[in-house]
Amino acid sequence: MATGRTHRPATRSRGIPEATVARLPLYLRALTALSERSVPTVSSEELATAAGVNSAKLRKDFSYLGSYGTRGVGYDVEYLVYQISRELGLTQDWPVVIVGIGNLGAALANYGGFASRGFRVAALIDADPAQTGKLVAGLPVRHTDELEEIVERNQVSIGVIATPAGAAQEVCDRLVAAGVTSILNFAPTVLSVPDGVDVRKVDLSIELQILAFHEQRKAGEDLGEAVARGTLPKAAEEAADRPGPDGDVPAVMPA
Amino acid sequence: MATGRTHRPATRSRGIPEATVARLPLYLRALTALSERSVPTVSSEELATAAGVNSAKLRKDFSYLGSYGTRGVGYDVEYLVYQISRELGLTQDWPVVIVGIGNLGAALANYGGFASRGFRVAALIDADPAQTGKLVAGLPVRHTDELEEIVERNQVSIGVIATPAGAAQEVCDRLVAAGVTSILNFAPTVLSVPDGVDVRKVDLSIELQILAFHEQRKAGEDLGEAVARGTLPKAAEEAADRPGPDGDVPAVMPA
DNA sequence: CGCTGTGAAGTTTTTCACAGCT
DNA sequence: AGCTGTGAAAAACTTCACAGCG
């Protein structure tokens, strides 16, 4: 079962590190903004600031793509926009289907960032017959029954899942069976897919939880963690009782 | 130079690595599911599979929290749920405001994952007077004018920005001035904030771009990268025109 | 001179592999 | 016997710092 993992050992992609790939869209956005203001060139320092990273990192990232800058001057904005777009594969058209047209699906359908980056929403799909035919972002919602046909006919290779968690795996399976090989998953579930299919997930609540963690830390600094957290920390550090807090534990203890 | 940076050198938080913190919500979700099915204990192997990571990583992660397992047996599900929740700060109530009630803001307001994890939507705020008073997810939309008052009165320390890019920085500044110290940003902009304020961003189109990158790679593997990418690697290097596929470079070349 | 491109050093994260508890 | 907890090794990523080109 859980087999077939063997996921890529990271750095697969033709030598470009994953961490770098993940930042390319950031640079691209900053560059696009510069381009719109007709700025002809940028230094690594300026671009780095605009993208929210540091300049050494940016230069190193670009070095994986090739030598696209000019020493003593900087980078040609338009040229770099093109090179990064090409590297990301945005110079081609990517038909995308969005499955699950609730609030989130509708938000995605309306999201301008897609269309402007080579992504074309080929269809919106929802399981609720009452939704069928409704126009969202100018497109008619289609029924799930048509999923396979839509994917095949439009040569869709990227699918976006914005359904409730319970429906996600089945939708995923059907998308994959129909030919989709990349999935962006907004449902809070771990999807299992065959080898060769990429899944990326965005979980809105995970980000909030990470923030809460740091927020809690900040509060703790001001008045001693125990008070702020409502629990004694592992008091005497990891010394004391390893078992854990004794007071308000949910009554369940590890045997 | 971007002044006040000095951000924590990562591994700040009481010794727990950032990478581990980022995975705790994942474990928590898997554990919650097990808990609902009344599963009493799990092995690192099982839990790892459910969370989509490998078991060595999971055990290492848990080792930073303390020794909460039982050798030869595994982890007590309820106990672990509690420990992770506490570590993440989810045992306390976090009032949150969502600013920008468009499609995305509404989706967030309706998102169940928040409420069930200690997050309480204290208010929905939008700049459009026409929206004011409308009910979204059972809450009335308030006007931006009231932002400061709402934040202060509810002791909000976490703000979610779901406005258009153009409005994000101003909203951010006002939130911070009013006392917010953690921001979850959905607008496609880099926000600048004073030291001590955390920002996390979620950019929907970035994830798609990363998928496109990998998708492109897959296609390339089938027929030789040079052809698929439209460029020979840095073969002849920057030899002026190694240009594009069939010469469709944007005409701008680096000096 | 100014700024890129990059080896080398430093840091963080992941993985291995096994000692040690139950 | 089984599974956790963890040092130690490996890999990935970041930062430094400077040579070298324009």
TrEMBL record, chains A, B:
Residues covered by region (Disordered): 229-255
SUPFAM superfamilies, A to Z: NAD(P)-binding Rossmann-fold domains, Winged helix' DNA-binding domain
The organism's place on the tree of life at top rank: Bacteria
UniProt keyword list: Cytoplasm, DNA-binding, NAD, Repressor, Transcription, Transcription regulation
Localization: Cytoplasm
InterPro entries reported in the protein's UniProt record: CoA-bd (IPR003781), NAD(P)-bd_dom_sf (IPR036291), Rex_actinobacterial-type (IPR058236), Rex_DNA-bd_C_dom (IPR009718), Tscrpt_rep_Rex (IPR022876), WH-like_DNA-bd_sf (IPR036388), WH_DNA-bd_sf (IPR036390)
Regions of compositional bias (Basic and acidic residues) in chain numbering: 235-245
Main location: cytoplasm
Positions that bind NAD(+): G100, I101, G102, N103, L104, G105
Binding region for DNA: 26-65
Domain CoA-binding per the UniProt entry, residue ranges: 89-190
PANTHER family cross-referenced by the UniProt entry: REDOX-SENSING TRANSCRIPTIONAL REPRESSOR REX, REDOX-SENSING TRANSCRIPTIONAL REPRESSOR REX 1
Family, as annotated: Belongs to the transcriptional regulatory Rex family.
Main function: Modulates transcription in response to changes in cellular NADH/NAD(+) redox state.
Subunit structure of this chain's protein: Homodimer.
Protein name (database record): Redox-sensing transcriptional repressor Rex
Species whose genome carries this gene: Streptantibioticus rubrisoli
Phylogenetic placement of the source organism: Bacteria, Bacillati, Actinomycetota, Actinomycetes, Kitasatosporales
